[in-house]
Design a protein that fits this description.
- The protein is mainly alpha-helical.
- It is 64% helix and 4% strand.
- It has 31 helices and 4 strands.
- Strands 2-1-3-4 form a 4-stranded mixed β-sheet, with helices on one face.
- β1 (481-486) and β2 form a beta hairpin.
- The N and C termini lie far apart (79 Å).
- 44% of the residues are buried.
- The structure holds one DNA strand of 10 nucleotides.
- This is Pentatricopeptide repeat-containing protein At4g21065-like.
- InterPro entries: DYW_dom, E_motif, PPR_At4g14850-like_plant, PPR_rpt, TPR-like_helical_dom_sf.
Length: 613
DNA sequence: CTAGGGTTAG
């Protein structure tokens, strides 16, 4: 049987002729036994599939073997089944159970093996607990690293803390692998303070530890700190690799830092860092989120291999740039390339259709999604409701929301309300508004949309009532936000922002700007007037909207075209475009607006102020 | 056998 297998595996994998095991120190096994063990190890390692492995397993079970050889072979089978991509974790568990006293090696493999399956559970943690209870074999630093990784995957904070205390008790605190695992674990649990503490105490910070720190900070949105760590890392003479750069690029995406993002891209090319799937996807996402859809596309088309996530990020990019046709085109190419769309892909393509108001196509994608066996979730329903509302099919959308068994979602109801406003359906709007305010009474955006609805049907009394209600509930809108990058520094401005160091010069400049715009004959439209009524802004002033701060800063500080990013949906804000056009003309400067409608996420219960203009 | 990575509606 064994020789048959050797033959089957072909001449390329001939059994090695050197015999290092004969000289292995401290072994009580005779060379014949050792030879047999090595033979098994070799065969198992070279197994082409599970079928052959099962045959080998059967062979081992039926042949009389010394106990030590038997256990050795079974532990090798456990390792193969648990860790090889060809393996099978269920089989690994089975074989593991057949070993009377599994070595720490087998335990480790099983712990690692069952944390890398697609639906990870706390099983590896339970295994570790069982291991520590029995007291044999003694865990080693590998065990600690694996179980910490398992805790990180399922963000089992309490369990991880206990492992950390064991690490210290058992003296594994000085292992750099264990330290790095701890940094990563705390980072995954969003416990940045604890991650930093472990990291600061590391005498030798390796690349992986730096990367874990950076990705941890990006995870909690501490983008500046992430970039600071990246700089510190380079100062410490540690060269980033592709994995590090994925986190750095993600940080740029989250910050909308196009300059730094482009610099990182240039770094990647200059240092010939291999742009794999993850890095490619991160770059596509970064360029799209920084408003540079052309470069996102450029990176995307140059990717040699694209998986579902790569395609999805490109589709999402087109979607939030309002380029529905491109999104649909890319989606078609994806299907042609026989890459399976997943639930995220459909969120992208449906939101693209919603942005473009392409109903028929959107509904077709919806059916396709069902055909693909994807259960529609809140997000998908949100897209389809938004699609119907934007194209005026509000009643149909309302029917879906009220008859489908999906959880009530403020955003979906807000889409309905916007649809009602658009079609001036005050009766349905009233019902929707009441429900929405019940669902989310502290979100200023809700009041603004409802107020817009009342004003569109001239129900002024209801509008002032609403204003009172808003005041009583002490609801204040979170201001819009715009940013501009000057010499690699991103300057963020909130509406009415006072915190910028040069705010005095800026304000003077803006007053002049407002005056010149006013003199040009521009007058605010209904929504600006509404804004004044609600927030008692000074008569005659243009309003210190965030993008005007950013433009003013750009005009003052650069000679290059002023590129600003706005956290608003410009497609519904005609006034913004108009003001910017006028400013551009007056100052004879090119002003480029990057629409960053989705780039900043506001916490629930706040307002993105889209209808604030 | 150690540790770090990408896409998610409005």
């Amino acid at each position: 049987m064994t020789s048959q297998l050797v033959r089957k595996l072909g001449s390329a994998s001939r059994f090695p002729s050197d015999h290092p095991w004969i000289t292995r120190a401290g072994s009580f096994k005779n060379s014949q036994e050792l030879e047999e063990e090595e033979r098994f190890a070799f065969l198992i390692r070279k197994c082409p599939n599970m079928r052959v492995l099962r045959q080998l397993h059967a062979h081992i079970l039926t042949r009389p073997l010394p106990l030590s050889t038997f256990s050795f072979a079974l532990s090798k089978i456990t390792v193969f089944c648990a860790l090889s991509p060809l393996g099978n974790i269920d089989y690994a568990r089975l074989v593991f159970a057949q070993i009377s006293r599994p070595s720490i090696f087998s335990w480790n493999s099983l712990i690692k093996g069952c944390s890398k399956i697609q639906n990870p559970s706390k099983e590896p943690i339970a295994l570790f607990q069982k291991l520590t209870e029995t007291g044999y074999p003694v865990p080693n630093s590998f065990t600690m690293a694996f179980v910490l990784k398992a805790c990180a995957i399922v963000t089992a904070f309490e369990e991880g803390l206990q492992v950390h205390s064991r690490v210290l008790k058992d003296g594994f605190g000085s292992s750099s692998f264990v330290q790095t695992s701890l940094v990563n674990f705390y980072g995954k649990c969003e416990e940045i303070g604890l991650a930093t503490k472990v990291f600061d105490e590391m005498p030798d910070r390796n690349l992986v530890a730096w990367t874990a720190m950076i990705s941890g900070h990006v995870r909690v949105g501490a983008v500046d700190e992430a970039m600071g760590l990246f700089r510190e890392m380079q100062k410490a003479g540690v060269e980033p690799d592709a994995v590090t750069l994925v986190s750095v690029v993600s940080a740029c995406a989250a910050a909308g830092a196009l300059d730094i993002g482009s610099w990182v891209h240039a770094y990647i090319e200059k240092h010939s860092v291999l742009t794999d799937l993850e890095l490619g996807t991160a770059l596509v996402d970064m360029y799209a989120k920084c408003g540079c859809i052309e470069r996102a596309k450029q990176v995307f088309v140059h990717m040699p291999v694209r998986d579902t996530r790569a395609w999805s990020s490109m589709i999402m990019g087109f979607a939030y740039h309002g380029l529905s046709e491109d999104a649909i085109g890319v989606f078609r190419q994806m299907l042609e390339a026989e890459v399976m769309p997943d639930r995220v892909t459909f969120i992208g393509i449906l939101s693209a259709c919603a942005h473009g108001g392409i109903v028929s196509e959107g509904l077709r994608f919806w059916s396709l999604m069902l055909e693909c066996g994807i259960e529609p979730s809140v997000e998908h329903y949100g897209c389809i409701v938004d699609l119907l509302c934007r194209t005026g099919l509000v009643e149909e959308a309302y029917r879906i929301v009220t008859t489908t068994n999906i959880p009530s979602n403020p955003a979906t109801w807000r889409s309905l309300l916007k649809g009602c406003k658009k079609k001036k359906l005050s009766n349905l709007g009233e019902i929707v508004a009441r429900y929405l305010l019940q669902l989310e009474p502290l979100n200023a955006e809700n009041y603004i949309v409802i107020s817009n609805l009342y004003s569109s049907v001239s129900q002024w009394e209801k509008m002032s009532e609403l204003r009172k209600e808003m005041k009583e509930n002490d609801v204040k809108p979170i201001p819009g936000c715009s940013s501009i990058e000057v010499d690699g520094v991103v300057h963020e401005f909130e509406m009415g922002d006072q915190s910028h160091p040069e705010v005095k010069i800026l304000r003077e400049f803006m007053e002049e700007m407002a005056k010149r715009v006013w003199d040009s004959g521009y007058r605010p439209s209904v929504s600006d007037v509404l804004h004044k009524v609600m927030y008692e802004e000074k008569e005659g002033a243009l309003g210190e909207h965030s993008e005007r701060f950013a433009i003013a800063y750009g005009l003052l500080k650069t000679r290059a075209p002023v590129v600003i990013r706005v956290v608003k949906n410009l497609r519904v804000c005609g006034d913004c475009h108009e003001v910017i056009k006028i400013i551009s003309k007056i100052y004879e400067r090119e002003i480029i607006v990057r629409d960053r409608v989705r780039f900043h996420k506001f916490v629930e219960g706040t307002c993105s102020c889209k209808d604030y203009w």
